[in-house]
Amino acid sequence: MSALSALPFLKPVHLRSPRSSPGGQRRHTLPASEFRCLSPEDAVSVFEIEREAFTSVSGDCPLHLDEIRHFLNLCPELSLGWFEEGRLVAFIIGSLWDQERLSQAALTLHKPQGSAVHIHVLAVHRTFRQQGKGSILMWRYLQYLRCLPFARRVLLMCEDFLVPFYQKCGFEALGPCEVMVGELAFVEMQHPVRGHAFMRRNSGC
């Protein structure tokens, strides 16, 4: 059994009852809300949301389409998408990193032996912003990581104005990140992943 299939918080929630067609036969309906790991087939939908969310603010995307496909091929288990009736509305993409702090190489590399999960991007579709979906998705992602035996901490880099959001999610600021993207500077943040054994015993992981 995969870690995903064992985690109740990654299974569809608020399932809609099957509707009847005019002929009296039951018609299949998609889950009202579903959380699952992303696949390379989701890359275009991911990029469309990311491009709209970031280019108007910073002028560029954390991940370009080929990089999204790259990570979703290498480590799809470190991604999480939120789907409403089959439509992607928010997502996180991560990879593994094997050093104490992030460096420029962390933007493109996945280190399979690493114990730090580097979150490259979290984005919410414009129609679903200001509804708390980013916080909920991050909470579910952190709960999922606690069931992965190799995950010990989570790292990310963000601009100053996003620091309060991530602090509310439980992250602490480590100081300026050495990574630069053009002229943009970032704050590096960390969240410990604790209670691995307890979570595994009590969640079926």
From TrEMBL:
Annotated compartments: Cytoplasm
- Annotated GO CC locations: cytoplasm
- Keyword annotations: Acyltransferase, Biological rhythms, Cytoplasm, Melatonin biosynthesis, Phosphoprotein, Transferase
Write down the Pfam families for this protein, in alphabetical order: Acetyltransf_1
Instruction: Name the chemical reaction catalysed here.
Output: a 2-arylethylamine + acetyl-CoA = an N-acetyl-2-arylethylamine + CoA + H(+)
For the biological process aspect of GO, one term held by this record is:
circadian rhythm
- Cite the GO molecular-function annotations of the record: aralkylamine N-acetyltransferase activity
Tell me the ranges covered by the N-acetyltransferase domain, including all copies. 33-194
Identify the main location: cytoplasm
Name the EC number(s): 2.3.1.87
Q: InterPro entries per the record? A: Acyl_CoA_acyltransferase, GNAT_dom, SNAT-like
Query: Quick one: which pathway?
Result: Aromatic compound metabolism; melatonin biosynthesis; melatonin from serotonin: step 1/2
Q: Which SUPFAM superfamilies match?
A: Acyl-CoA N-acyltransferases (Nat)
Query: According to the UniProt record, what class of enzyme is this?
Result: transferase
* Keyword set includes Lyase: no
Record-stated family: Belongs to the acetyltransferase family. AANAT subfamily.
Question: What protein name does the entry list?
Answer: Serotonin N-acetyltransferase
Recorded name of the encoding gene: Aanat
